[in-house]
Amino acid sequence: MIINLTQHRATPEQLEAGVIDLPEEDRRVLTQYLTFNVLPDHEEIYHRACTIASFALAYDAAMIGGAPYLMAPLEAALKNISTRESIEKPQPDGSIRKINTFRHIGFVK
């Protein structure tokens, strides 16, 4: 299954090829992240790319489109979808040791 991560609904040809549109509520949120009213800085682009990529977690592939400056960061975010586990371990002296582990959970082709 290929998830449509563009501002436009999939065409009949794309639907026939296996593209799936997001549910309407998710599509509205996606459109907000794909729309830029002012030029963003690098941090904003990165944040939006990661958020958009999260929509693709349950799918085999993603169809992307939007602002050219967002596409490369979005592609990178899709290729590097990961989760973070945070573990807190009590230490003998009473302090807490916090360990963050990033685990790769797959690629979006």
Strands, helices and their partners?
Layout: E1 2-5, H1 12-16, E2 19-20, H2 24-34, H3 42-54, E3 61-64, H4 68-79, E4 82-90, E5 96-104
Parallel strand pairs: 1-2, 1-3
Antiparallel strand pairs: 4-5
Helix pairs in contact: 3-4
Explain this structure:
It contains four helices and five strands. The chain is an alpha/beta fold. The protein has one domain. The strands form two sheets. A three-stranded parallel sheet has the order 2-1-3. A two-stranded antiparallel sheet has the order 4-5. Strand 1, helix 1 and strand 2 (19-20) form a beta-alpha-beta unit. Helix 3 (42-54) crosses helix 4. The radius of gyration is 17 Å and the shape is elongated.
Q: TL;DR?
A:
With 109 residues, the chain is α/β, with parallel strands linked by helices.
Task: Name the poorly predicted regions.
Answer: none
Distance between the termini: 11 Å
Rounded to an integer, what's the Rg over CA atoms?
17 Å
Assign a percent range to the helix content: 25-40%
User: What amount of the residues lies in strands?
Assistant: 25-35%
What's the average pLDDT? 87
Number of domains: 1
Q: What structural category do the secondary elements indicate?
A: alpha/beta
Helix/strand order: EHEHHEHEE
Overall outline: elongated
Total strands: the figure is 5
Query: Biggest sheet, in brief?
Result: 3 strands, parallel
User: In which order are the strands of the major sheet placed?
Assistant: 2-1-3
Q: Quickly count the helices.
A: 4
